[in-house]
Amino acid sequence: MNTTHTLSAKSISILFMLYLGWFIPPVSYAQVDQSAVDDFVRISAYQQKRPLKDIAYIIDQAEFQPVIIEKMSRPAEKTMTWERYRNIFMTSERIHAGVVFWKENEQALNRVSEETGVAIETILGVIGVETYFGARMGTYRVLDALYTLAFGYPKRSSFFKKELGKYLELCKKEGLDPLVVKGSYAGAIGYGQFMPSSYLAYAKSYDSDSGADLINQVEDGIASVANYLKVHRWNKGELVAMPANKSEHAETLSKQSVKPANTIIFYTQKGYEPAEPVSPSKLVSLQVMDMEDGSQEYWVTFKNFYVITRYNHSPLYALAVFQLGEAIKEARKTDG
């Protein structure tokens, strides 16, 4: 493959089989614009100052996976009620796994929390929601996931082309085999499920004397999750969320931004009272969570809740992280 669009070995093979009448093109090839792939290869080689043939070889090994498009089109955060979403993560098994993970990695968690100011329970909540404490880091080749989304998902094509380029950079920098690394269907990697651009920007080595390995080194995973939250302005010792009660005559509110923009008194005057005393002038948001029976839960959320949504923009995700972390913290007290 080069700038004159020379056919790859894969393309030549397909054309030969077509000529002989042996091959019916799968949906995947019909959905990929080869000229767009060639342009990406050429631009990436130029930007990364790498031989065109090296980039072309890697991209030529990518396989289009239609199931990834299907999954991306119906993410759980947009198709489930809060109750169903919460029940995925708030299980006794996952909470127990969090307690075990805490015990096994207590030294690293203590040190990282002390250095960054990020609460241990929040670090645990993120890793627990993202990968079940490292047990479920993903089964898709990251190359396939990013290739599929870059060239088969027009809605976010530019984003995933960027991530595919960053993935090539990441593999070069960290000595990873781009044909082997596995992750989520969106191309996220390691304990904290970092996208390649986030891996490059926020990954942190626990011992500071080598590159960060978020796949094999749990300490690096812990340090990197905390570093991500710290960089996005986590406030040490501050609240994340608390339940709120809705009065009988409360006003119906439009959907509220996750970024705190109104004071507590603003919401109390509209009929929403936090479960515990909070300074009336404190900036907060109010998140409304749908239950399966049509009822709703109300949550006052603070700046640290917003910081968690920098990891994943869904309020459901942030509340699941918060509740899982709190549940692990409580279970650890009783477990000893």
Automatic annotation (TrEMBL):
| Highest taxon, organism lineage | Bacteria
Q: Pfam families, from UniProt?
A: SLT_2
**Cross-referenced SUPFAM superfamilies:** Lysozyme-like
What InterPro entries does UniProt report for this protein, alphabetically?
Answer: Lysozyme-like_dom_sf, Lytic_transglycosylase_MltB, MltB-like, SLT_2
Transmembrane segment boundaries: none
Cite the PANTHER family for this sequence: MEMBRANE-BOUND LYTIC MUREIN TRANSGLYCOSYLASE B
Which NCBIfam families does the annotation name?
A: MltB
Q: What is this protein called?
A: Lytic murein transglycosylase B
Give the gene that encodes this protein: mltB
